[in-house]
Design a protein that fits this description.
Layout: H1 2-16, E1 19-26, E2 32-43, E3 49-52, E4 59-61, E5 72-76, E6 82-84, E7 96-99, E8 106-117
Antiparallel strand pairs: 1-2, 2-8, 3-7, 4-8, 5-8, 6-7
């Protein structure tokens, strides 16, 4: 069912020339999740493409305990440089990934951020 909805949407975006998508995936523990956005079909010479990683409700960006930095990844094809935009990203309300000019025939990038999410109290609070 979801694929049936995605195919027409993807074809429309493919016709436009750039595909941008976002999703969230649960991780091993109930209080962790990841969210991502993807830029696809970037044609050679095109630049300035960006996407916003959705921030799940009641979640904050996880910190990598080894590097003490935000827990995030960028997967990209060869021929393009991408990064999280420091001017547009505050890591609390907005996370924006951006890419430079595509040097290959076609480029793509995926920005993934990992989150720690609060869990609703299962016990009622005493007065």
């Amino acid at each position: 069912m979801m694929i049936a909805r995605l195919v027409p949407t993807g074809l429309v975006l493919l016709a436009i020339g750039v595909t941008v998508s976002a999703d969230a995936q649960p991780l091993g523990r109930d209080t962790q999740t990841s969210s991502s956005c993807q830029i696809g079909n970037i044609k050679k010479g095109a630049s300035g493409k960006q996407c916003d990683v959705p921030i799940p409700q009641d979640c904050k960006v996880a910190i990598n305990s080894t590097t003490k930095t935000h827990w995030a990844d960028i997967e990209k094809s060869g021929g393009i440089s991408c990064h999280f935009d420091n001017k547009l990203t505050d890591w609390k309300t907005r996370i924006t990934g951006t890419c430079g000019a595509c040097q290959a025939r076609q480029c793509s990038a995926k920005f993934t951020v990992y989150f720690d999410c609060s869990q609703p109290d299962s016990k009622p609070k005493s007065p």
